[in-house]
Amino acid sequence: DCGTPSHGAWPLLRAGLDAFCAVDDSFVGAAVRTFAAEGLEVGESGAAGLAALLALAEPAAAPLRRHLALGRDRRVLILATEGVTYPDAWRRLVGRDPAPVD
After folding, report:
1. Residue 101 and residue 23: Cα distance in Å, rounded?
2. Where are the beta strands (DSSP E) in 43-97?
């Protein structure tokens, strides 16, 4: 659901980008499950950063990893930008209900 960036934020974001990518939904599911295993309830859009990092670990992404100078000695900051916005989807991905929202 994040196909179009904010018109106000995009110029600032673009100025700091080295690369961007589209991520297959299979990586998003893995990212949501990874967050859940750590006790974090993050929705699909919120997990996009981790999904991209998981995709970058694939052999086919080696050129982009080299471009970004990513390796085992690097640290990556991942921002989880939203919680569970679609409980049914989260339940399908994780296999349990999210915590009730107060």
Report:
1. 28
2. none
Token look-up 């080299």 returns: 66
pLDDT, tens only, 33-73: 999 999 999 999 899 999 999 999 999 999 989 989 998 89
At which residue do the structure tokens 């939904």 appear?
25
Angstrom distance (rounded) from CA 43 to CA 62: 27
Stated pTM of the model: 0.82
Please state, in angstroms and rounded to a whole number, the distance separating the CA atoms of residues 101 and 84.
9
CA–CA dist 72, 100 (Å, integer): 37
**Residue 36, CA atoms < 13 Å, CB-side half-sphere:** 19
Q: Determine the 3-state secondary structure of 6 from DSSP.
A: coil
Which whole-number Å values give the CA distances from 87 to 1, 28, 42, 82, in the listed order?
Answer: 15, 15, 10, 13
Mean of pLDDT over the chain? 90
